[in-house]
Write a structure and sequence with these properties.
- By secondary structure, the chain is an alpha+beta fold.
- The two termini are 40 Å apart.
Length: 648
């Protein structure tokens, strides 16, 4: 089980792509994750995964990986493909696709059926397929699928597949019970105490060292990945804002008069009342309280005597009070004079006894006094309507297959083109330039698109403005030419030489420790002059956990070594090498520490469900039978990283 925990910890996307995340992906990510739902039985490109009767093609898996990146970008803005792959994203996608097919076939063999009605219900709940009224829109459904080149059959197939996975895994993922017998060995590990020493051999850079052209070329070739410029995109867009229509919108007197009239009592004469009220469930008690109030007792005192509490509603209009009670109650309360008592009057809440505490009258505001205010309101409304009209026309044009050029020409918009920018809207050729927030939003849409996709509309800010965005071209990730970064590569070569020299010293120290020499003396014997003093560590895992800090790698290494041994560990930032030794191990005994066992049970309980789910899926794989084309998968990953040409 610990191996599973380690795998999850090592991957930044372990939580996102673990089997616990096999909820209905099409629903979780909406249309953004449905344009790869055509894998089952696909024949496009070479087969990279086989699961019994189903195959997954190279093209399909490529598309899936890009979709997964888009999904993760929703939580980690600016993440590019290189970073996604480096964090294990590709392997997670392969596992997710393979597991989905396995679990689908296992479910069908077991007699499970995801009915058409169930799948259609899931589709209807996807926001991207709903209209302005929140209901399923066949037009939006067909338009979204057409834009992503998906058929309804492909969409339904994938939703059914993910539904099967959810049915099969939900019970095991929810498991959280771990027994004492299982938890105690791990609790023993927490209480284990280790003593050791840590020495650092620094990497000292020789600024005078210079490589030959051959050495530099070889170093550059071996480290090409280090000098990659991330994928960039050129995006075309046009911005539509309320300001663009400010000069075009005219407000007539007739419109102002209509708005004044439509405002109702907002500007007209109005009356408000302050009411004291008590609501009683029993009619007889209500009549008694009403009699007391009419006899001069305050509403609050009469209610308190009956074990109830009165309320005061201040400066309320009749319409407002009607929504709080009922129309009949409000009508009676507003028909009574000041000081009058009303009730009992029945409503769905009970029997109301109301006293009119005060009445306020407002003469209202004449049209001339609010003309300027009305003009601003009507103008703003017409500007918003103009924006909505433009957006609807653009939406219709996109649905009809119009190109970006046709759309902006039809609406007389000003097209703009970005430079080749990263997903963060940064220009690697001008790193000092700060990204424009508006362009950053445009670039997010640009990186969500693929070649051949229809233009999209994205909102900008809170004023109703938006942009129509189309992908111009994709600049694949590639290494900068050596000559353009020669000075940087030379400096990196020097650091590598310093690092290699320090490693030779560290290996000599390890050899000396292996012959029984103490670490401090081994450092001196290996010529590690100028090294910092040796650090002594004596600590248990439980003490480290209580500090709630990230465990330093040398200390973590100590807990994975045998007593009397030494190992080398790279220091961060090319700082050199740590040499770690273990001088003593005191085993932990949790049998006398019930608290440690209980806390370990709780910790294991939070992840044991995912372990069960993984084991369940592994068993299903053995039953169904799967096969991966390792060479094709490696080539696809290299292509996605922009290394295809270099690999060839």
């Amino acid at each position: 089980m610990l191996n599973f925990f380690r795998r999850v910890v090592k991957s930044r996307f372990g939580v996102l792509f673990t089997l616990a995340a096999l909820a209905i992906i099409a629903i979780s990510f909406g249309v953004a994750d449905i344009n790869g739902l055509n894998q089952g039985g696909a024949t496009r490109g070479g087969s990279v995964i086989e699961v019994a009767r189903d195959t997954v093609s190279e093209n399909d898996l490529r598309q899936r990986t890009r979709l997964a990146l888009d999904a993760v970008r929703q939580q980690q803005e600016g993440l590019d493909m290189a970073g996604f792959l480096a964090a294990g994203g590709f392997e997670s996608v392969v596992a997710r696709v393979e597991n989905g097919l396995v679990l689908e076939q296992f479910a069908e063999r077991s007699g499970m059926v995801a009915s058409k009605a169930l799948v259609d219900g899931q589709i209807a709940s996807i926001p991207a397929f709903q209209g302005f009224d929140g209901k399923f829109s066949q037009t939006n459904f067909e338009r979204a699928l057409a834009q992503r080149q998906i058929t309804p059959v492909q969409l339904r197939s994938d939703i059914a597949r993910e539904t099967y996975a959810q049915w099969l895994l939900a019970p095991t993922i929810g498991a959280a019970q771990v027994g004492n017998q299982m938890a105690q060995p791990y609790a023993n590990l927490l209480l284990e105490r280790r003593a050791g020493q840590i020495g650092l051999i620094p990497a000292r850079v020789d600024a005078a060292a210079n490589p030959t052209d051959q050495q530099l070329s070889a170093f550059y070739g071996d480290n090409r990945q280090r000098y990659l410029v991330p994928e960039r995109r050129v995006v075309r867009y046009a911005v539509v804002t309320p300001e663009a229509y400010a000069g075009r919108v005219q407000v007539s007197d007739a419109e102002l008069q209509a708005a004044y009239k439509a405002a109702g009592d907002k500007y007209g004469p109005s009356a408000t009342r302050t009411l004291e009220q008590v609501i009683v469930a029993d009619q007889a008690l209500a009549a008694k309280i009403a009699g007391q109030v009419k006899g001069g007792t305050s509403v609050a005192d009469a209610a308190r005597a009956a074990g109830l509490e009165a309320t005061t509603i201040r400066d309320v209009k009749q319409s407002g009070f009607a929504t709080q009670s009922a129309a009949d109650v409000a009508q009676a309360a507003f028909a009574a004079p000041q000081g009058g008592v009303v009730g009992p009057v029945r409503s769905p809440l009970g029997f109301h006894i109301i006293k009119v505490a005060s009445i306020s009258q407002s003469a209202g505001r004449p049209f001339a006094a609010v003309r300027e205010e009305l003009t601003a309101e009507v103008r703003k409304k017409k500007e918003a309507e103009a924006l909505v009209a433009v957006q609807e026309k653009l939406d219709n044009g996109i649905g009809d297959g119009a190109t970006f050029e046709e759309l902006i020409a039809d609406q007389k918009l000003q097209a703009q083109t970005t430079p080749a920018l990263t997903a963060q809207a940064l220009n690697p050729d001008a790193p000092q330039q700060q990204p424009d927030p508006r362009v950053a939003t445009v670039m997010q849409a640009g990186f969500a698109a693929q070649d051949g996709d229809a233009p999209t509309i994205v909102p900008l800010g809170q004023d109703g403005g938006f942009a129509i965005v189309a992908l111009g071209r994709i600049v694949p990730s590639a290494a900068r030419p050596l000559q353009s970064i020669r000075a940087t590569v030379v400096e990196d070569w020097r650091r590598q030489q310093a690092k290699l020299a320090a490693r030779r010293v560290a290996d000599a120290v390890v050899a000396n420790v292996g012959r029984g020499t103490a670490l401090q003396q081994a450092l001196g014997a290996a010529g590690a002059t100028g090294a910092p003093p040796v650090q002594t560590v004596d600590v248990s895992r439980a003490e480290l956990a209580a500090r709630r800090i990230q465990l330093p790698p040398p200390v973590a290494l100590m807990f994975n070594m045998k007593r009397g041994t030494a190992k080398v560990l790279e220091a961060p930032n090319n700082g050199g090498w740590f040499v770690v030794t273990v001088t003593g191990i005191t085993p932990g005994d949790a049998s006398k520490n019930p608290g440690a066992v209980q806390s370990t049970r709780a910790g294991l309980g939070s992840v044991v469900g995912r372990e069960y789910a993984e084991q369940f899926s592994n068993a299903a794989k053995k039953l169904i039978g799967t096969k991966r084309n390792a060479a094709a998968l490696a080539k696809l990953k290299a292509d996605l990283a922009g290394q295809g040409a270099a690999a060839e």
